[in-house]
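Progress narrative, Year 2. Work on RDD family protein from Murinocardiopsis flavida advanced from sequence curation to structure prediction during this period.
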Amino acid sequence: MSYPPPPEQPPHGGGPYQPQQPGYGSGPQQPPYGGQPGYGPQQPPPPQPQQPGYGSGPQQPYPGGQPGYGPQQPPPPQPQQPYGGQPGYAPQQQPYGGQPGYGPGGYGQPQRPAAGWGGRFGARVIDGFIVGIPGGIVIAILSAAMMPTDIMSPSYAEDVAAASAMSMGIGYLILAVIGIVYEGLMLSSKGQTLGKMAVSAVVTPLGGAGYGAGLPGGTAYTRAAAWWGAYALMGVLAFIGGAGLAGIAGIYVLLNGLWPLWDSQNQSLNDKIAKTLVVSSR
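Result:
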């Protein structure tokens, strides 16, 4: 019986035979010519990462070889996707000098400069003629109808005083009604009376909203009543105590007209009651 030849022994002092590792970037090596393959299928060891020399830069792979296992450059940071956002859409950059987005709008239109006191006084004079002419006609008719005709009567003087107070009271009440209706209608439709149109002034709510569109009806009639209502009070006081007592209400009319001269917002008293401003329409 013949025995198979013993396996080759390594040289004296050497360890067991180790197959050479393939070079960096080369394919699998063929076993040496005439050599015996190792026992069992040999798996090539995993390639070891190359350590760069001291002070050297990153290793470049050999031509045709696989990329090295050295330190890789980290990829550039990606913008994080906001929670709940749509994927794939980068945030839009605001162009240089572009207009910002429209936020919640301010209250009303930009505030115009306040109308001057001289112009407002002129507007009141014009409106006074517009309202006062028909009112004066009514007062004149009433006075003529109510005056006593018996000049020989012992009570003639007292009768004249009573008739004058009565006609004055009724006249002031009529004047107040005409003024409230006239100014309320004009302010609610145009924001201006004829007098304010002549001096280029307009009444707006406090804050400037609704410029040129007319005041709300409640605001328009409140402002009108806060001015012309003083004449109604004059009429009532005239019934009670004649012209002297009616003059008390005249103090309010005077203060109301002069108040814009020292008010920080150029408001009259009826402006403050109705929360309005008188501004220039130019």
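The chain has a mean pLDDT of 72. The CA atoms of residues 112 and 194 lie 20 Å apart.
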